[in-house]
């Protein structure tokens, strides 16, 4: 197998990996992830982290009995949770002597060519400076996903991470989920479903495999991950879906080891 070692990569981590079922931050999981990402930066990879979790963490921190149904309350929870998460990330990255930066995006930011160009410049400058950008959707401003559960331009962090990967010319996008990869059907519904190791084309059969999120904390399920795959592959960027419970798998993934499901971009399919 001839998989190029990625120089620039985007890693997206979902709410279910970052939080306990109560919505509180899973500190052990965050610590392991931050350690691996810091180490990969030390090994010469340029990494952008796209993180979910703001709403769930805000709901837990505010002591709300459940995820609110009103948009304004969800946006308020996101504002609280985002601040909590960044505080912990910054503390953890500092332990490994890494500087991080926060970037919050809305659909308009990536749709507008002038803003997109500024963003590209900011990401490159941060990476040149050895900084690790940490990105989330600006949920307190944008209502795209939290209102509808779907995205138009952005709206979920799977799509957001693929847009960021494409914008920054990343070689690899890794989605850390609460499941090992793409199965032939949702294993929570069909226990006989099989894990797919490699996908070279998003055929209608593959797209039909995607089901809904697994828990109240997840947003897009596999459908948004496959939308992300489409954006990444069109940008010539490989994408891997793997289990966020084992962040150490990232070491093997950057070496091209078979882990989870790897979607292989066209320019590389011929090399296999
Ligand atoms: N074909 C499929 N293969 C794997 N998981 C699937 C599939 N269809 C639906 N799912 C569901 O998608 C969930 C992962 O997405 P999601 O709940 O958004 O989590 P996360 O936020 O961790 O990405 C899985 O737990 C699983 O229940
Ligand atoms: N931007 C939202 C998360 C959106 C999202 O896609 O969540 P997830 O399915 O857990 O990756 C938040 O920070 O709560």
From TrEMBL:
**Taxonomic lineage:** Bacteria, Bacillati, Bacillota, Clostridia, Eubacteriales
* Gene3D superfamilies on file: Acetylglutamate kinase-like (3.40.1160.10)
Q: Where in the cell is it found?
A: Cytoplasm
Q: In which pathway does this enzyme or protein participate?
A: Amino-acid biosynthesis; L-proline biosynthesis; L-glutamate 5-semialdehyde from L-glutamate: step 1/2
Q: Which residues bind substrate?
A: 52, 139, 157
* InterPro entries noted in UniProt: AceGlu_kinase-like_sf (IPR036393), Asp/Glu/Uridylate_kinase (IPR001048), G5K_ProB (IPR041739), Glu/AcGlu_kinase (IPR001057), Glu_5kinase (IPR011529), Glu_5kinase/COase_Synthase (IPR005715), Glutamate_5-kinase_CS (IPR019797)
Annotated GO molecular function terms are: ATP binding; glutamate 5-kinase activity
Task: List keywords of the entry alphabetically.
Answer: Amino-acid biosynthesis, ATP-binding, Cytoplasm, Kinase, Nucleotide-binding, Proline biosynthesis, Transferase
Protein name as annotated: Glutamate 5-kinase
